[in-house]
Amino acid sequence: MEIIDPYQTIASIRSMPGLPAVLTQVMEAVQDPEASALDLSQFIASDQSLAAAILRVVNSAYYGFYREISSVTTAIVILGFLEVRNLVVAVTAYNTLSSNRTPQGLWRHSLETAIGAQRTARLMSAPPPAGPFVAGLLHDVGKVVLQNLYPKTYRRAIQQSQQRAEALCGAERDVFQLDHAEAGAILAEHWNLPEAVVEAIRRHHEPSHASKAVKLTNLTAYADYLAYEAGGGDPSNGVAPSFPMEAARKLDLSDRQLVQLKQDMIEAGEKIDELLGAIHGG
Questions:
Q1: What is the pLDDT along the chain (282 residues), one digit of tens a residue?
Q2: What are the structural domains, with CATH classification, of the chain?
Q3: pTM for the structure as a whole
Q4: Full DSSP string of 105-121
Q5: Best label site of 18, 87, 98, 171, fewest CB within 10 Å?
Q6: DSSP string spanning 62-85?
Q7: How far is CA 238 from the centre of its chain?
């Protein structure tokens, strides 16, 4: 199997396009206590395709509103700044990175992990101050990056993972000398995402190594596992992640809450498919 120079991979990631300006504006507006729903809607409306996508998603069966939401401003008032920001991140990430080589199963897993992280955070007595949805959505973005940069080689890494029933990150390290967690973190740094999100992406398979964003990293690791348990695992992975016992313990949730979370995510499966379809434009 061809071995890829890791320095070449890192340089290629750092030369990838930055995030669209509208996403940066939206994320800054969410952090601005003086920003209004009108301010946020104006940023989104500056990109007509994004605005149309947000309205399509908001009016999907995932939210199930009894009437049609016809403006982005109304969507922000009803859903709130953070929820609309999350939708903008999801739509923008999909549009920026998606290609014919990116399997829908991976995007679904990413979306389910994001929703799982968000729902888990709501149960925590002291959740991370920000980032659960974004970290969950982008935790496997390194897979998309490596697949887009080296499609044939990455396909062979997937085959090795599946044939040996081993974690995909092990096969990635054999080929690229780095895994998708590191590749994703490098891209997140290139995109100037918050340090906490970068670390959660980098350490989601080894949360005990986190030092700056311990809570968010543990939450992301558990949400990744939860998505697999709920039937939303990444089909390219040769083996599902094992139960992150230490990460789950640090979430400080009861066994009953963890069981209920899994059941809720299983029941949400059909709606998550509908949400992904709306993001995709179907």
A1: 567 888 999 999 999 988 888 888 888 887 788 888 888 899 999 999 999 999 999 998 888 888 999 999 999 999 998 899 899 999 988 888 877 667 788 999 999 999 999 999 999 988 887 789 999 999 999 999 999 999 999 999 999 999 999 999 999 999 999 999 999 999 999 998 999 999 999 999 999 999 999 999 999 999 999 999 999 888 889 898 899 999 999 998 999 999 999 999 999 898 888 888 888 875
A2: 6-280 (1.10.3210.10)
A3: 0.93
A4: HHHHHHHHHHHHHHHHH
A5: 18
A6: TT--SS----HHHHHHHH-HHHHH
A7: 20
